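hi got a favour to ask and not much time before my train. below you get a single protein, a line of residues and a line of whole numbers that encode the local backbone shape. could you go over both lines and see whether the tokens make sense for that sequence. a few lines back from you is plenty, here it is:
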Amino acid sequence: MEIIAYDGYLFASGNYWAAVPDTSSIGKFSLQPSTLQRRAAGSLLTGSTVSPRAIAVQFGYTGSNATIEDAFQTLVGILDPMNENPRTL
């Protein structure tokens, strides 16, 4: 799978590429059931909660107008990994 944009930024516009490695395609999340305890009967399943799923991504740079170090420093600034708010992939 190839990722083309993140939070409105098109990777191709900065000469970057992003892809999900095969090892990341495995679901790495948990499903927690919600139950309701009942008197004199078994628990009743009332729904479930799915944990956030972290997706590992590989990045590459195909441009020639910056060094690899400068290109990835710029990319990290664009991605803002310290921002915990959900964003569109």
